[in-house]
Amino acid sequence: MATVAAxxxxxxxxxxPLDVYPPRTATSNKVLRYLDDRCRVHKETINRCTTxxxxxxxxxxxxxxxxxxxxxxxxxLVITVGGDGTLLRASHFIDDSVPVLGVNSDPTNSxxxxxxxxxxxxxxxxxxxxxxxxxxxxxxxxEVLEGKKTPTELSRVSLKINHAKVPSFALNDILMxxxxxxxxxxxxxxxxxxxxxxxxxxxxxxxxxxxxxATGSTAAMxxxxxxxxxISMPDLQYMVREPIMPRELDIPFLHGFIKPDxxxxxxxxxxxxMVYIDGSHVYYKIKHGDEAEVASDAPVLKVFLPSxxxx
Length: 311
Prior knowledge:
This protein is of the alpha+beta class. Helix content is about 20%, strand content about 30%. The strands form 3 sheets. Strands 1, 2, 3, 4, 5, 6 and 19 form a 7-stranded mixed β-sheet that branches. It has a 6-stranded antiparallel β-sheet with strand order 8-7-18-15-10-11, with no helix packed on it. The two termini are about 30 Å apart.
C-alpha cells in the first residue's frame, strides 16, 4: 500500500468540531444521552480515520473545518469527517485539482429513529455526498488509492456581482434574498444565451431567487417544488420563491433551467439584499441597483461519491 499511496503523498483530514454536542455529566434524560452518543460516535470516527490515514500517507494534516481560511493547495486528497456540511465547507476552499472523499461520521440508525420517533427526531448526520462511514472507511480509502474508485466531477455555480468575480463557488445553491429572507424583495432577471439571444425580462416581487446545481436540486430546491436532477447533469435550475401576483405571461418563466453555456443576469431593486452561498455561512451584501450574474462555468468539484448516486 505504501507504493500506491505514494501517488497521493499528502492528505488533509478536515473534521467537524467535537464540541457541537459538548459532553455532560451522567444523565437519565434520553435526549441528552442521545446527544452525548452523537459526540462519542463522531470522536471515535475521527480517531479511526486518523489511525488509518497515518498508515497510508507519508504526510497528512488534521484541521478543524472552522479553522479553514485559505485555499486548500499542495494536498493530493481531502478527507472530510462529519457530514455533507463539512464537505460543503471544504468545497469553498478547493478548485478542481484536489479530489474530496467524504466520511459520514454519525450516520442515522433507522431502528433508533423508529424507536424514538414519538419522543424526538433521532435522525443523525446527513451524508448524501459521503462515500464512507467509520465501518468501511479503510476499504473505501484503499479503493481510492488503488484507482478502483474515480471521482465524479460535480458542477458548481459561479457568481459575479457588478462584473466582479466572487471567490466562492456554490456546490448546492445560491439564494438571493432580503437579509430577512421572508421579506419581499424586488428584482428582475433574464437568461442570456451564448448565441447572443436573450430571454424577455422577468420582473419579480417575491421572497427571493434560488439557483441550484444538480447536486443541490434534491435539497431546498426539491422541497420548494423543484425537479430532482441526476447529480452528473451540468445544467442549473432556478426558482422564484413565493412570487406575489405574477403576471400570467411570466408564470412559466418563474421556474426553469440554465444551460451550461448560458448565464442568468439579475438586477436588484430593493434597498438591501444578500446572496447566500450553500446556506447561511457564506454571503455577500448587495444593494439597490446592483447586478449579479450566475452561471455554471465554475471549476468542477471532484468528489468520490457513494455508488447509490452513480446509478
